[in-house]
Amino acid sequence: MLIRRENPGDAEAVRAVVAAAFAPYQATRDPGRPDGLPVEVTLLDELRGDPGWLPELSLVAPAPDGGIAGHVVCTRAHVGAVPVLGLGPLAVHPAHQRRGVGSALVHAVLGAAEALGEPLVALLGDPAYYSRFGFEHSQAYGVTAPEPKWGKFFQVRVFDRPAPPPRGLFAYAEPFSGVDGG
């Protein structure tokens, strides 16, 4: 499966994929949003304008029809004062789910992050899904979640490096502060 960097012309198609992927969850989380869009769409829009946006880590999976099947992004985050990455949102259009698109995107963005020399990537997600990519509970590495209620769902993937991974409180890029649970 081909995975490539997002191009400037992909932004609207990526936004549509994120909206479609998270729409089923929006009704139970925040049905009264004035724009009716999933919070992940707003988050993505805000991340694009944030200094933490890293274009080289915004990746897409092209669809066979020429559209976009999925998208993943890692943005600049910190553990204490040490720069690290936060993964998300990860989105696959419902028409392309359960075909390995999400897995291919995660493998690609982790490979790119490691190649760039990043010490670790953190995310909030299902351990049953993300453990296959080497993610472990953040506490195993002394990384503290921004919200204690996240418990086992806050995970990190540490890359092999000569220096030990940073320890301390994790902080996502600023736009995540406006997302409940993110």
Automatic annotation (TrEMBL):
The keyword Cell membrane does not apply. Its EC number is 2.3.1.-. GO terms for molecular function: acyltransferase activity. It comes from the Bacteria. Signal peptide: none annotated. InterPro entries: Acyl_CoA_acyltransferase, Bact_Acetyltransf, GNAT_dom. Gene3D superfamilies: 3.40.630.30. Residues 1-155 form the N-acetyltransferase domain. CDD domains: NAT_SF. Keywords: Acyltransferase, Transferase. Pfam families: Acetyltransf_7 (PF13508). PANTHER family: ACETYLTRANSFERASE (PTHR43877:SF1), AMINOALKYLPHOSPHONATE N-ACETYLTRANSFERASE-RELATED-RELATED (PTHR43877). This is N-acetyltransferase. It comes from Microbispora maris. The lineage of its organism: Bacteria, Bacillati, Actinomycetota, Actinomycetes, Streptosporangiales.
